Known about the structure:
Elements: H1 12-21, H2 24-33, H3 35-38, H4 42-58, E1 60-63, H5 71-82, E2 98-102, E3 106-113, E4 119-126, E5 128-130, E6 136-139, H6 152-163, H7 182-206, H8 219-222, H9 235-248, H10 250-256, H11 258-268, H12 272-283
Parallel strand pairs: 1-2, 2-6
Antiparallel strand pairs: 3-4, 5-6
Helix pairs in contact: 1-4, 2-5, 4-5, 6-9, 9-10, 10-11
Amino acid sequence: MLRWLRGRGAAAGAVARVQARIEPGLWARVLRTHPFLAALDAAEDGQLLARAAWLLASKNLNGARGLEPDDFIRLSIAAQAALPILNLPPALYEGWDEIIVYPEGFSIPRVRQDEAGVVHEYDEAAAGEAWEGGPVILSWADALPTGSAFNVVIHEFAHKLDLSSGVADGMPDLGAHPGLSPRTWRRVLDDSLDRYIAALDAIEAAIPADIDPESEAADAWYSQLPLDPYAATDEAEFFAVSSEHFFVDPAPLAQALPEWYGLLQAYYRQDPLARLARAAGQARP
C-alpha cells in the first residue's frame, strides 16, 4: 500500500508507482469523507489524485504520540493538502520533507514579551503548525470533517504557500502569476482584513454582557461572520483562514469580501463556489 514511501523529491516514475498503488475504493472513500473534494469534476479528480500521489512520494508522513498512520489517514491528508496546488506548480511545496501527525491536539511551547518587557513562557494548544523550512504538524482528529469550514490541513498548507515568498505576511509568491500585481494584492488584502476586523468588532460589541464571548454561547453571534474570528490575528492568519473557507464553504466569503475572493480565485486558479454549485445541481433528482 502506501507505507513503503520514503524520501524527498518525486521523480515521475515514483509518482506513477504511488498513483498505481492507490486503490480506487480507498480514493472514493477519501472523497466521500470530504464533500468539498467530492465536488470536483472528472478532470479535477484525476489532477488531484496525481498531486496527492506526488505529495506521498515527496514527503515522509510520520505519526507521533503513538499514532501509526494507515493508508486512509495518509491519503486523506495528502488529498486535502493537494487541493490548493491543484492548478499550481508542486514545487511550491518543496524545500521540506516531513508531515507529522498527532492523534489529536498538541501543545507548542511559546515565548512572548509583553508591552512592559516581561517575558512569558507558556504552552499553547494547537491543531496544526507549519514551520518555515520544516515540517507541517497536524492533529488527525482535527483533519476530519467538522461540519464547518474549519480545515487544519488546508490552513497549514496555505501557510506553506505564504512562506514561499520568504515571509508569512499573507502574500504568497506571485512569480507564477504575471497577471497578479503585488501592489494590488497588498491593497486588497489590507482592505479586506480591515473590513473583516470591523465586522468582528461589531459582532463582539453586539454580544450581551451576560454572555462570555469565549464560550459556546457566543457562537450564534460569531457564526454571522464570513470567516472564523482567528482570521483577524494578522495578515498570515487571514490568508490561511480565508483559504480554508475558500475551498470548504466559499459562499459567505464570496458574498462578504468579493474582491478578496476574486483574488484568491485568481491565485489558486480555482472557483470552489461555482464547483460546489455545479455539484449541488448534479445531485438533484
